Write the structure tokens for this entry.
Amino acid sequence: SIEVFPPKSPEAEARLWQNLQLFSAAKPRFISVTCGAGGSGQDGTFPLVLGIRDRFQLPVAAHLTCARATPAQVAEVVRDYWNAGVRRIVALRGDPAAGVGASYQPHPGGYQSTADLIRGIKAIGNFDVSVGGYPEKHPESPSVAADLDNLKSKIDAGADRVITQFFFDNAHFLRFLENARSHGIWAPIVPGIVPIHNFKQVSGFAG
């Protein structure tokens, strides 16, 4: 699969569609479109998902977060995707409202975890749901075992596959894969790969 970001300028949009023409020729299993922290699709995710699908006839997965929305607001977005014929979602908790590095506090009345989000999605429709996995442990997890417990809760809630955070050392991924299997996680695990086209940007992601 290939992940793209909603463009923030007309120039970036023109480049994106040129790149998508190339990506489509590679016949990816699907293309995923990221979203902003709110996950509402108002940042351009929703129209880009539909545009890619309609122009290239490729399966498209929409990223969806729950950190800054109520279950009712999330459900509205999910129903919009279902009604538009989109059947793939990448379900993510989202960054804390106070920013990366802060402790996560659920939105008032909102979902407590990604597992809760997945159950909410699956209650609306039989979506194909991907979730995140962390070969070097999620920064907020107290231990590798706790991180794997959390990943298993997402699979048990109905997630169909894991897409990992990117990594620079294959040994991290292979160890993660072995640990996940020994933890009873048997869903497909897809390694995350980021081309280093902009060192400063990728360095920021890694940080």
